[in-house]
Amino acid sequence: MMRSKMFTRSMMILLVAMISFCSFWFRLSAYYSSLNNKDQIETRSLRDIRIDLGNRDLNKTLSTRNILIDLGANCGNSYKRLLKTNQLDREGNWEVYLWEANPQLIEFYLNDIQSDESVPKNHFVKVVEAAAAASDGFVSFYLTAGQELIRDKSQFPDKGRCDPDSEANPSGSSSLLANKKRVGKPIEVKAIDFARWMNDDLKASDDDYLMIKIDIEGSELQLLDRLMTVVPMGFCHIDKLFIEWHAFKFRDKETITEHTNYANNFSSKYAEVCGHSIELAKWH
Prior knowledge:
By secondary structure, the chain is an alpha/beta fold. Helix content is 44%, strand content 19%. The protein has seven helices and nine strands. The strands form two sheets. It has a six-stranded parallel beta sheet with strand order 3-2-1-7-8-9, with no helix packed on it. The radius of gyration is 35 Å and the shape is globular. It starts with a helix and ends with a strand.
């Protein structure tokens, strides 16, 4: 009888011990399992974050535009010079806007520039047949003196050669201004408000790379003033700006002084309006 009671007590103690051990093991397993799950969750979250960031970077890369605006494109020599001097990436995709108001240059050189063998196939080139101005409409445009009756590009100086390595070009003085040297007879051309065009048509974002070349034979002052007044935010996000100043092409001292002072003070004025400096290069 006594042995039976002792056996029963031993079995009870063993059972309690086994239950306690199993409970302890279960809790221990649950603890380590929770740690593993947490690590997996954290690892998965970090991976997801990296994927999300990667996608955002990829989307930004895909949506970023490379843009060249050439005001006063002439025969296309300035665009080709930028290509030749590696200012433009031949491998990248570029939107190229060639602004030219001279109908002779458009007909003889620019209409078929997209098919020119020197133009990369991944460059989308659009010719804007208008003068970049401060308002929309039609304006008087003065052809270079002595070139008003040209009907074939071979009649231009140097037989109409369009040389990206030369500062000379087939027609270098046609302008919206009547008080310049070498001004010939006027014709009527379309004018586009360049500031409005930048806002409404181009719609470049802060992430885009924007390069502008301005060589518009003396009209640059009015254009730049309007840009800094009407679209300062867009204008302030230009990455590189080339300008040819034209004080030397005027006759009267007052205009020469005005253009000279404007050119000398432009960088500081830009910094005042935009809050930062700009990479500014003289075109010639």
